TrEMBL record:
Origin species: Candidatus Thiothrix phosphatis
InterPro entries recorded: Glyco_trans_2-like, Glycosyltransf_2, Nucleotide-diphossugar_trans
Superkingdom field: Bacteria
Pfam family, one: Glyco_trans_2_3
Protein name according to UniProt: Glycosyltransferase family 2 protein
Span of domain Glycosyltransferase 2-like: 94-224
Amino acid sequence: MKTITERPDVAIIVLTRNAGRLWPEWINALQNQSVRAGRYLVIDSMSADHTAELAAAAGMEVVRIHPDDFSHGGTRQMAAQLCPDAQLLVYLTQDAILHQVDSLETLLRHCDEDEHVAMAYGRHLPRAGADLLERHARGFTYPAVSSVRDRSCFKTMGYRAAFASDVYAVYRASALRSIGGFPQHIIVSEDSYVAARLLLAGWKTVYSAESTVEHSHQYSLLQVFRRYFDVGVFHASEQPLMQAVGAPDREAGAYVRSLIAYLYERKKWLLPLAALQTTVRLVGFRLGKRYQRLPLAICRLVSIQQAYWLHEANRPAAVLTEAVPVGLGMGFLPVPAMPLSEQKKIEKSVKILLQNVDKERLEY
């Protein structure tokens, strides 16, 4: 008989929008955990399927928001504020399936055993059927060995020290409050932003390889380009923090070398696809880093995070008037200056153009 540990000090938070076919499995995995939290909170962005209804039927509290009000940092901060009595906040996404009955118990243990640990995140395992490129990505990013990081790790690891994933993570509420919580207006990578600030403030973070979820995706090249454009926007928008923790360039090189070796041993014929995917990532990332020189309409067309561009403070400072250097050794990506009337036409058509671009919905 399974022993259930009551944890009234813990709040489980999940952000949802049209969770789809994985949602019943997600709920079942949560209900089978060896830990029972004091609160289960779902922040739902007006799902058109049965996401909210199934959550409520499972006994979870559901708060509904408009999709235009969603942001990766702001919505998570709102959820934290809705759980003022919780000492530990566990964040999950709707497609991260808890893999073990003690996944949560194992993750929480890091905060229980060391009061200096501000957050811990678990290991992501590829789903059955994931292709080799995705399996390598999971294995490289989430290795089989756990690690503890502190401020000194920036000297040896650079940006990698700040990497974290709130797809599945626990945060100490007092530590989160000590740095001002999640940022309100951030396009993506709010998890690494928070981890970096916690480390710089003297806290520890933990990668827990023993606590696992099933979580992987198979993205098209267009989806890869759009996602890495947003990552580039993040790096451009948070330059002071990037300068403090180190650039990701060294990590990118290690990833490419690892991917080549991995595919060479298994399916060499995938190497050209891997090279193309890597090039698309780099182009998207470097274009995103230069978003301030792009017309707003182009940013909205390329970006996955549509709601981000609705806020005046997040918009590009100027309309592009010259070529944008992408920096791949292939010269320049020319984008001519665009009249205001043409920009408005593009903005009106953005919704139509984006309707069927992505095979998968935005990852909440």
